[in-house]
UniProtKB/TrEMBL annotation:
Domain Integrase catalytic: start-end pairs: 87-144
Protein known as: Integrase catalytic domain-containing protein
InterPro entries linked: HTH-like_dom, Integrase_cat-core, RNaseH-like_sf, RNaseH_sf, Transposase_IS3/IS150/IS904
Domain of life from the UniProt record: Bacteria
Amino acid sequence: MRSARAIANEQRIEQIQIVWYKNKRVYGADKVWKAMKRENLVVARCTVERLMRRMGLRGVIRGKAQRTTFADPKAACPLDLVKRQFKADRPNQLWVSDFTYVSTWQGFVYVAFVIDVFSRRIVGWRASRSMRTDFVLDALEQAL
């Protein structure tokens, strides 16, 4: 015997499919959820997202994917000295770093962070308009 939740999910799946197909299979979870609300179909947004993912339904993504990094296949990969165990018993025992980018009206801005694993605080950071090694090293120098 199926539970009431399973039956409700089956009904929601049918409703989601109807809305998704009715809108030319371009709507993502947010627009499907809003369309369902307009039709007085009560369902949580996270439920729509979860069921759409389970069904393999996705909205159309506009624009071209922006590729910001290009790996050098000949370059040696750095060693994983902490073996993916990001735990520390005291401050300044283990630092990790990363950098990311933020899209602005003027173009990309790259930001490098050095984080103390114990306190989870940023101990050094730098921003740059170019993705070069020196700005990452400047963040490390600030942390030191």
